[in-house]
Specification:
651 residues; alpha/beta; seven-stranded mixed sheet; six-stranded mixed sheet; 21 strands; 38% helix
Length: 651
């Protein structure tokens, strides 16, 4: 017979899952494709039974010069004849035809396992497509409205990727190195240069190709068109790492675009070719300069993010459940996390998850916001992970400590003004944790516990210190805005007698909380109020609408420099349930509890609690707030150097 606890366990799990809605059922964010994505697959028939073949337009160009026999019987000779024709009658169409024919030949050579010949032909395809796009020696400029122009871009990108795959298979794709690459008829001195101020050469452990993966875990995939090969750079820990190293997760992947800068003056008949492969961080600079023109890089920001999230160390189900049911074990994972390099000139946006959740819950919003060039230029996104099984006021105290540690680690002398324009975004219980960073406790929170002065409490130093840090605090002067989303500002009815009892049974309460509670009660008889929340030992219990802390939190003095914004979920009632269920809210937090007075903005979105922070309207609202935050500053911190232009006012 099933025990009452086991019978009710499913109930509490369902209730908490509904409240959190963030523990994913699957950790499959990306999957390998059976065949890499290639924009030339259809136009060149790469996967057809007949094999790769030139386009109709290139065939027409070949017929114009009566070279059909060479196409069928003398492919190497065909390229040589076209080169002679191009010297005698320079025409951009010649360059395109040679690029396409070289690429088709490279694919055929690969199918025949002739990698050296394929590498030679891939290099020729890159060179000729580059000439088509940029060579000024042709009388007629390239026409960006011609479909052939985009195919030339695709030829450059696909040929470069084909060459890089062969080079990588030889173990020669390492930044900061110069390799001698042997092709069928030449040797090539390949210099690999890292073009980034944020990453170092030793940060790169390996590269993977974006085209090998398809994204499953993110709703939107952001891929920008241009030149270059989007790569997934897998990071490695190494000697001499920066002070921000502690904030990077163990298995971090980040976007890189490989671009081969071609010298069109170099003779293809030279026995030694020279090429420079540039590795660009598209988050830092999404374009390259060729002559006097800025050319956009082909970039993919979403696939490397999904690749990072697919790592076992970031398994949302494990992190969320561990933080809820065994908060003491999750304590070692607590802290700020960065998924991109720390940049002191960008404003931090710190995202704080809710109950039974982890930073992974923010990836939809992060992916969408980071795709916006303006947001990407001025903001960096951080994520706060904390054990969500403990009362939210303990988590708020821990976050205050972790933010102070961050500042001491990254900016001990307070020279980076962008860090003083921080924005916090919190979902559900995370919104309460955020708000507690920006208010002045005075004696109000302590008065909820006791009418006696704090100085008279009897406890060991460690317990006294923890008690003081939890109930006495100042607003953080570096936080300028707080956005709360689906937050129970007046508690949640889901924290009822049943769920609180089950929470106490299922959640393994941290020993420091239990020992401190027992010590305070034993050594201070009659000192604490009967209604003091000392008996609240779990996060579920802390969300009880009857908690005396909620009225204090609503009326506490706020930092005068902080602006607040609020997003509320309201689940549309459908079907038969709409006949009797007249409640308003997101299914977990009522409209009344989620509402805030005296905020800069407040919107209601049609979403359930578990998805309110992922809803497109919520993401657009956060984007609007971030743009407004920039507009409210007198200027931008990384555009100025003089003291009078520094962003923000003194406190």
């Amino acid at each position: 017979m099933t025990s009452p606890i086991r019978a009710y366990s499913l109930t509490v799990v369902v209730l908490v899952a509904s409240a959190a809605g963030c523990a994913s059922a699957s950790n499959k964010w990306v999957a390998l494709r059976t065949t890499p994505r290639n924009p030339l697959t259809e136009s060149l028939g790469l996967l057809t039974r007949q094999g790769p073949k030139p386009t109709t337009r290139t065939l027409q160009w070949i017929r114009r010069y009566d070279l059909e026999d060479d196409l069928n019987n003398n492919r190497p000779g065909l390229l040589a004849k076209l080169a002679i024709i191009d010297q005698q009658e320079p025409h951009r169409e010649n360059a395109y035809a040679m690029a396409e024919l070289a690429y088709v030949g490279a694919k055929q050579a690969e199918l025949s396992k002739h990698s050296s010949e394929a590498l030679e032909l891939y290099g020729s395809a890159v060179l000729h497509s580059y000439r088509y796009l940029f060579d000024d020696n042709y009388e007629v400029a390239s026409n960006p409205y011609d479909p052939e122009f985009r195919r030339a871009c695709d030829l450059y990108n696909s040929a470069l990727e084909g060459a890089l795959r062969i080079v990588q298979a030889q173990g020669n794709l390492r930044p900061g190195t110069t390799q001698i690459i042997q092709t069928a008829n030449h040797q090539c001195r390949l210099e690999i240069q890292l073009k980034s101020d944020d990453w170092q050469e030793d940060d790169f452990h390996e590269f993977q190709f974006v085209s090998d993966y398809e994204v499953h875990g993110l709703r939107n995939r952001y891929h920008n068109y241009g030149l270059g090969v989007p790569l997934i750079a897998v990071r490695s820990k190494h000697v001499g790492m920066s002070g921000s190293e502690e904030f990077y997760p163990q298995d971090l992947s980040f976007p890189v675009t490989a671009f081969l800068r071609v010298n069109t003056e170099t003779s293809t008949n030279s026995p030694m070719q020279h090429a420079v492969l540039e590795l660009h961080d598209p988050l830092e600079k999404p374009s390259v300069r060729i002559a006097s023109v800025e050319i956009p890089l082909e970039t993919d920001l979403s696939t490397p993010l999904a690749h990072t999230l697919n790592q076992p160390s970031l398994d949302d189900s494990r992190l969320s459940t561990l933080g809820l049911l065994k908060p003491e074990k999750a304590e070692g994972l607590r802290g700020l996390y960065m998924l991109e390099p720390y940049q002191p000139d960008k404003i931090p946006v710190v995202m704080v998850h809710g109950l039974w959740s982890s930073p992974v819950t923010w990836m939809e919003m992060f992916n969408d916001l980071r795709s916006d060039p303006q947001i990407r230029e001025y903001y960096q996104f951080w994520f706060y992970l904390y054990p969500s099984g403990q009362p939210f006021w303990f988590s708020a105290a821990a976050m205050r400590k972790d933010l102070a540690h961050m500042r001491e680690s990254l900016d001990p002398t307070n020279v980076y003004p962008a860090l003083d324009q921080m924005v916090l975004v919190g979902h559900s219980m995370g919104g309460l944790v955020c708000k507690l960073q920006t208010i002045d406790s005075g004696n109000d929170f302590w008065d909820v516990l006791s009418e006696q002065p704090f100085t008279q409490v009897q406890a060991d130093d460690e317990v006294r210190t923890g008690l003081a840090q939890t109930f006495f605090f100042d607003p953080n002067p570096s936080i300028r805005r707080v956005v709360t989303i689906g937050t129970p500002h007046r508690g949640s009815d889901f924290a009822n007698d049943t769920t609180r009892w089950l929470g106490r049974k299922l959640i393994k309460i941290p020993s420091r909380i239990m020992q401190g509670r027992h010590q305070l009660i034993a050594r201070n008889p009659g000192y604490f109020r009967a209604s003091a929340p000392l008996n609240v030992t779990t996060s579920i219990g802390s969300l009880d609408p009857k908690s005396p802390l909620f009225p204090v939190l609503l009326t506490a003095e706020q930092g005068s420099w902080v602006k607040y914004h609020n997003v509320v979920g309201d689940t549309p009632k459908k079907g038969i349930s709409s006949w009797w269920d007249k409640s308003k809210g997101d299914g977990v937090v009522s409209l009344t509890s989620a509402h805030l007075d005296d905020v800069q903005s407040q919107i209601v979105v049609p979403a359930q609690h578990s998805g309110v922070h992922r809803h497109p309207q919520s993401i657009l609202e956060v984007r609007r707030i971030l743009v407004q935050h920039l507009a409210d500053l007198r200027t931008f911190p990384h555009k100025v150097a003089s003291e009078e232009k520094v962003v923000g006012s003194s406190l």
